[in-house]
Specification:
Distance between the termini: 45 Å
Strand order of the largest sheet: 2-1-3-4-5
CATH class of the largest domain: Alpha Beta
Number of strands: 12
Shape: globular
CATH architecture of the largest domain: 3-Layer(aba) Sandwich
Number of helices: 8
CATH superfamily of the largest domain: Response regulator
CATH topology of the largest domain: Rossmann fold
Largest sheet: 5 strands, parallel
Length: 235
């Protein structure tokens, strides 16, 4: 089941119709109050949140969802007309797994929904650094694939589902350049269309910020993509 919070009736009906046509169960809400009432009855598999709502912003809803143990792990897609970099960063920092800006392609929206649901049901567990331990440790950075915990200087940091998948993927492919196309296919599950590179870039940016000094290990390969690398100073 998918919960959509969108106050624009035309958009809400369009998205719900598109999702139902693909055999997804969708419940639409036109405000936060009705959404919270609905959440008391049934827990969905995915949330789609508009940012600009009449009674409570989508970002405020997102913060509450991520603060609750019942909903913290559920994927969230932000659907918004606010396309500035700052707005996208706020959404990703608050815990959103993906975003799409209005006007949007219904086919792209469906692809992102399928990818989020697919990834939410698949937690790759593999430690390429040491097969005898569950942790991948590089200097002050540690990642536990099984428990899905990332620590910097021994302190657990809050990162989103997609950020964890990115970091885990990079650590499993040290010194290997990952193009945006590869990352979109592997992490998001949909093909690169020439316009989605900002999705990868924004997630990389927020991941670096949350990792602090350890974020410097994620290198930008201009015109190609990204890779993770570290020297002896990190070991």
């Amino acid at each position: 089941m998918i919960y959509l919070v969108e106050d624009d009736t035309n958009i809400r009906e369009l998205v719900c119709y598109a999702l139902r046509s693909q055999e997804f169960e969708c419940v639409g809400f036109d405000n936060a109050t009705s959404f919270w009432h609905g959440l008391e009855k049934t827990l969905p598999d995915l949330f789609i949140l508009d940012i600009m709502l009449p009674d409570e912003s989508g970002l405020e809803i997102l913060a509450k969802l991520k603060a609750s143990p019942k909903t913290a792990a559920l994927p969230v897609l932000m659907l918004t007309a606010m396309g500035s970099e700052l707005d996208r960063v706020k959404g990703l920092d608050a815990g959103a797994d993906d975003y799409i800006t209005k006007p949007f392609s219904v086919l792209e929206l469906l692809a992102r929904v399928r990818a989020l649901l697919r990834r939410a049901g698949s937690h790759p567990i593999h430690d390429v650094t040491n097969e005898n331990t569950s942790d991948i440790v590089v200097g002050e950075l540690s990642l536990n694939p099984k428990e899905r915990v990332v620590k910097v200087n021994g302190k657990a940091i809050a990162i989103t589902f997609k950020e964890f998948e990115l970091l885990n993927h990079f650590l499993q492919h040290k010194n290997m350049v990952q193009t945006r196309e590869q990352l979109l296919t592997h992490i998001w599950g949909y093909e690169y269309d020439g316009t989605s590179n900002r999705t990868v870039d924004m997630h990389i940016k927020t991941l670096r910020q949350k990792l602090g000094p350890c974020g410097d290990m994620i290198k930008t390969i201009r015109g190609v993509g990204y890779k993770i690398t570290w020297d002896e100073e990190y070991l």
